[in-house]
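fyi for ur records
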Amino acid sequence: MKFLSLFIVSLLLTNCGQSNTFSSNALTQFKQSSELVSTADISSDGRYSLIADPEKVCVWNNLTSQLQHGCLVGEAKDYIEIVKISKNNAYYITSNQVVVRLYHLNDGKKVGEWRLGENIINDIALSENADVMLLGLRNGKAGIIRPFSNEIFTFKKHRLDINSVALSNDGLTALTGSSDKTAQLWHTKTGKNSFSLKHKSRVNHVQISNDGDKGVTIDSISDHKIWDLKTGESIAELDTHLRFFEFNHSTFSDDNKVLLSGSPKQKLQLWRVSDGALIGQWKAYQNNSRASVLATSLNAQYQAMSMTTGGMLETWDLPPK
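which gave:
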């Protein structure tokens, strides 16, 4: 796999002349499903991808271009809407929005499964070691599951449904976005709020950096903010004039200098954290209009990866050409 030097990336971050560059030429493409993919995830280092389609749920080893182990079939693959890989590549989860199942990534053996009554799960985030699961529920509550000690806690964090959740690597800091027009930053052990981040409309997407210092929140109309989560102050607005702006997935670089996002209509975009500038964008693979970018990854060597609803895994050069 091709990696770029950090020197080239340094030029990218300081050169505004790259703004709004659009490229459709991926470095590599690898088809991982011939079905319509409902949900997917890519490990933070790009080594693994996890995809769910109507027939199966599969983990791919992207270094060997082979399945990591046998796919989940039968009841285990039915109605899967959420999948995540832990950042240490040891575990993954699947959920049909009622039940959460945890598996060993290496061999696919199930660790356990949990549910919070009949509550509908809209989103899930994992700590680095999968020892903390954060669940955003349709009733405005947030669930904390500690799978290895089998502890479950719920906190009433929002007045309306929670649409998106994010968790720091250590599992201590949670960011939740809701239809009540707020994103809440809070501590997962105590449930105590640190900051309430107000928006003009429903918050559809949140993401937090690995260290918990930076965050991004996207509402349904006009607020697309990058935050300093140590102070609760807004750093920048993302540089877009589009209404109904939408992220399916996003990820911060390890140094918190850039944010990579994946959106509907084939869009993969790179944003500078310090001022919200759009410094690169790509056009993902399209197959019969199945072109929504479901998952993104940006590893320590600044190589970008994406997965679309068409089942295509792609890698991208930085900066865009």
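The chain has one helix and 29 strands. thats all i got for now
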